[in-house]
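Before we proceed, please read the two lines closing this message. Let me know whether the C-alpha cells fit the sequence:

…
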Amino acid sequence: MQTPTLQFLFLRLCPFLFLFWFGLITPDSYAQTKAPSDPAPPASQTNDVSAQRSEAVTRLSDIQQSILDKRKKLDELENRLAKVTQENEKEGLQKQINALNADIEQLNLSFEQIIIGGLDLEPFSDKPARAFNWQEELLEATKPIIDGIKDLTEKPRKIDRLRNKISLLKEQRKLTEQALKSIEKFQPNTMPQWTRSKFESIAKEWQQQRVDNESNLEIARFQLASLQGDDTDWWQSVRTGFSEFVVGRGLTLAIAVAAALSIWLLMRSLFWVYQKKLVAPSGRNSIHIRLASYAYRILIWLLMLLAVVMTFYLAGDFLLLTLVIILLVAMALSFRHILPLYLAESKLLLDIGPVRLGEKVVYEGLPMQVKSINVDSLLRNPDLKGIIRLPLRTLGSMVSRPVIDEPWFPCNAKDYILFSDGRYGQVLEQTLELVQVRMMGSVVHFPTADFFRMDFRNLSHMGFNVAVTFGVDYQHQTLCLDVIPERIHKALAHAFTKAGFNDQTLNLQVDFKEAGASSLDYLIIASFKGEVADSYFSLGRLIQKTCVAVCNEENWIIPFAQFTVHQGEGFQALNECHVPSSNAGSD
C-alpha cells in the first residue's frame, strides 16, 4: 500500500515545485499578488499615487490646449480652402485638413485613455475585424530580429548614407555654381520692372541654395568625421558593447540557462528518488515503468523549455523570445517528416518493438544479446570479448527472439578443436572480430563470422571419443569373440591408469567389428573428459601401442594385407606380392 501513496505524492508535488520556482524568478509578481491582502498601503505609495494624478492632470491640460490650437488652425485652412480656385492648391489644403482631423481625433482618444486608465476599447469598436494575413503576421513576428540586425549594422549604414549625401551635395554645389555663373551674365538694369523683379527673386533663391548647400555639406562632413572618429578607440567600443550585453541580454540568457538547469537538477533528483524507492524493488523492465520513465523525461524538457520562454517573456527581450519561437516552429515543421521514425524508435525504447531487451539477434552473422536499448544500444556475445554500440535506427531494422538454453559460440578460449580436414588446434582468444587458434606451433587468425560457420569438433566441451580399428590373424579365430576382446580391454584399462588417464576415462569398449579380407578386426572406442583434449592424438597412439604389446605377450599374429597381381592373358605364371600394411587408424 506504500507504493501508490508515494506515486500520488510525487505526481502532486511536481506542479507546486514548478510554480514555486517561477515565484522565485519573478518576485515582483509575487509581491503584486500579496499586495491586495495588505490592510493599508504605505505612505510612500500614497505619495506616488498623488504625484501620478497631478502629472495626469497636467498632461490633460496640455492635450486640451493642443486640441484648441489645432482646431483654430483647421478653421483657417477651411476658410482658405473655400476661397481657393486652383485644383492643385485645393488638394494641398485638403491634405493638411485631413492630417489635422486625424491629429485631433488621436488627441481626443489620448485624453480619454488617460481618464479611464488606459483600458483597451477594441470590444466597443464597430470596425470590422482585420482579415488574417500570414505575411503581415510573419513580418510582425520577425520584426525584433530585423530590428536587432539593423542595430548591429546601424553605424555602417549611417556612414554609407552620409557618404552618399556628401556626393549628392557636391553634385548640387557644382550645378549651383554653374547656375550662378549663368545668372551673372545678365544685366538686370536693362530689364523691364516686372522682369527684373522676377529675375532678382530667382537669383536670390539660387544664392540661398548655395549657402544652404555649403552649410549642409559642412554638417554632413562633420557627422561623417564624428562617426569615423569613433573607430579610433575600438577597444573602448568593444568593452562598452560587451558590458551592455552582459548587463542586458547576456544576463537574460544566464538567467534562462540557470532556470533550465535548476529545473533539470530538481526533476532528475526527484526521479532518482522515485527509481530508488519505487522502481528498484519491483524491477525496471516493466512496460509501465519504461513508459513512465520516458514520459517523465519529456516532461522535464518541456518544463525547461517553458522556463526559458517565460524568462525571455518576463525580461521583455522579444528578440530572444522570437528566436525561440522560430526555432520551435522549425522543429515542429521538421517533426512531421520524421514522425514515423520517431514512432518506431519509441516502440524500441518502450521495449515493445521488433527488438527487445535481453533477447537474441543476429548481427553480421553472429548471435548477439541486446544488453540495453537507448540512443546508443549495446549488443554483446557472452562468449566473445567486446561490445557493439549501435544507433537506435540500425537496431530498428532487426528482429530478436527470446533466449533459450543454447550456446552463444561453439567454443571458448583454451578449448581444443578438431577441424573436418584433420587440422587440430587450441583456441587462444576470441573477439567480435578475430579468433586466434594455435595450430602446429603457429597462431592462425580467423574472422569470427567465418569461424562461426566452419565445421569442427570441440574436444574440450562435454568430452570426446577416440576410435581405433585393430586386427589379428585368422588362425586365432577360436579366441576372437571372448578371449581377445577381454584381454585387450584389460590391457587398455591398465595402460590408461598407468598413464594417468583413469579419472578422465568415461567409457572403454572393445567389440568385434568384422571379419576382414585378411584379419579379424576389432573396434576400440574410448571416451574421455574434455580436460585431456590436449592428449587427443597421444591417446590414439597409446591404444595402438597397447594392442601391439598384448599381441606380443600372447603370441598373437598381426596380419598384413595380401593381394595378387594378374599379369594378363597369355602369362603362365602368377606372382604373388605380399605388402605389409598397418590395420590401425584413427577415426
